[in-house]
Batch of 2 targets.
Target 1
Amino acid sequence: MQPKFSKNDFLRMHHSLDKIEPSGIFSRYVRGIGVPRKLWEHILDKDWNDWKWQIANRIHTLQELQKFIPLSAQQVSNLEKVISVFRFGVTPYYFSLINFQDREHDPVFRQIMPSEKELEGWGKGSWDPLNEEGDSPVPGLTHRYPDRVLMVLTNFCPSYCRHCNRKRKWPQEEHNITRERIDQMIHYIGKNLHLREVILSGGEPLMIPMEDLDYILWSIRRIDHVEIIRIGSRIPVTLPQRITGDLLTLLAKYSPVWLNTHFNHYCEITSVSAEACEKIVQSGIPVNNQTVLLKGINDDVQTLLQLNHALLKIKVRPYYLFQCDPVIGVEHFRTRVAKGIEIIEHLQGHTSGLAVPIFAVDTPGGGGKVPLIPNYCLSFSPEHVILRNYRNQIYQYQEPI
Ligand code: SF4
């Protein structure tokens, strides 16, 4: 069921969005405001709440986008060039979260709207800065850390985030993994006895056909040395309707399964995404969140504080805050590394440790993640350690004799 708000309630909530308190989550209506609302008024709830309807009605051409946003001929021409390289697509649900009264500054709009800046940063960054392809013993399977591997199952996503670090996969046609490729990956995992965790990723791994997902999970679970299956999915954010009973029953069969999702802003937390996360947790699947630090979207303390508090309220643990990778086409989203450390400095101690994610930089060339924290340890000696607390007070801590 969609929340039932009067138009006035809705406008009031939107106007107060900037002052939103963590307790004010779920206040975004999910049928848009202004133009989108009018265009979707006739859509029945049963259709709107059906993930297949959402996929069938994705906005993925500039012609469709122009029903919602006026674009000049020059803009259309420029954006055609952008989306011929970096494709465009967004579910009506995720698009409906945009506050059209101030869309240029809206965090959802900025995450999904193609921008000429994607081509301006062409010479900066690389297609694969983390060298995932180089660390792939089997195409699509990255083996970087000793005890875990990552399987890319598709290059399809319900909504394409402009900051995605796998944009290199976008110029190819949308496609899912083949059975032959799955079997090659499973064979590799089975041979490597030190692998204890398999991460399913994409694209959006929860969008591959259920029978393929079942086959992959079943094949992994047959390997004795694999303990944990982790799924990296933005479905709770961009298409929460996909979290159906059938899907959860399937995932729960292969427990322990963990799910890492990707909320970047508190305005992405709606009653619908909250319900999806609740259902996932109730199925015995712990949910963690990985946020990407994005310039002009969430690179300030208040936004991340509110996001992390809101996540905890829907039982999602803020796990990582990632520095945005230097990928071609995302340069305009990148912040300086010091910004992330500064944000953690303002969170650590000032709020519950549960609301403080690990800030990490993925090192270029495949060196792996490096966690970065403000410097709280000022000096060591054999007898004691000098520590600084979150209030900048200095303490001497006695070492064991
Ligand atoms: S959902 Fe994930 S894989 Fe898909 S575009 Fe967004 S960040 Fe990239």
Note: The longest helix spans residues 73-85.
Target 2
Amino acid sequence: MQLLKRFSPILTVIGIQLVVLIGLYLLIQGLWQGFSFSLSLWAKVSIQAAGAVLVSYLFRLPLWWIAIQFIIPFAVVLAIIFDLPTWVYPLAFFALLLFYWNSADERVPLYLSNKTTWKALADLLEEDRLSGDNKPIHFIDLGSGFSGTLVALARQFPRHTFTGAETAPLPYLVSIIRCQISGLDNVHVQRKSLWDVDLSRYQWAYAFLSPEPMPRLFKKVISEMPKGSKFISNSFVVPNNPPTDTRILEDRRQTELHIWDIN
Ligand SMILES: C[S@@+](CC[C@H](N)C(=O)[O-])C[C@H]1O[C@@H](n2cnc3c(N)ncnc32)[C@H](O)[C@@H]1O
């Protein structure tokens, strides 16, 4: 059941491609029988890709799945043209799975906070240090990816402790190596689901996830984080729970950092 849940968006993606393929087949037959007109190979591939994008959009699949839907028909045809060996497909799928472990069931893909965001988080920590009692802080990145955010902050704030929770196997492995290479002893990553983290130990929690887990995550934050702590969400808000403050960053995507003071 758990496995089915993890793969359900992937099954939806495959199902949509198959349904569009049936539609394309009927269209090809209709054009040929009605008008003796035959589509070129790339016209067929483009129609398949556009159809898959349209149906995925109507099914409200997340944007990254819609992009994948567009790529699939072209990738399959190119693979056939260049006669790639069959083991390439499961291998590519497996490699993607190790990176995008949480895209399917958690609906959280892997994309990374940029350096402008690292700097904004550092500025917030610095503001807090100047206005507060200057005690060491425990900071957690919930879904820490390759740990770039954590290592950058750990280097700048040696008195604070930075922890990551990450379940995707390859990002976790990269994180372990990165933390080791950094030589810092105030940054650690755990192979742990963010749902299993005890947030009562942390004064700051940062998350860059997707709209999907936000309501459940916010409930966890409110019930576990200590009074006076801060929860920061990169880009994603919590329905019906406006943040205490929002910082709009001066990067290309105008990143929004939503900050909640936990009282
Ligand atoms: C958008 S990336 C953000 C990475 C990093 N926090 C950053 O800002 O650069 C989200 C990460 O959360 C991880 N993730 C998603 N659901 C998770 C869960 N339940 N437990 C732990 N990690 C999770 C994904 O694997 C991915 O690496």
Note: Residues 101-102, 106, 108, 110-113, 141, 143-145, 148-149, 165-168, 171, 193-195, 208-209 surround S-adenosylmethionine (CB under 6 Å).
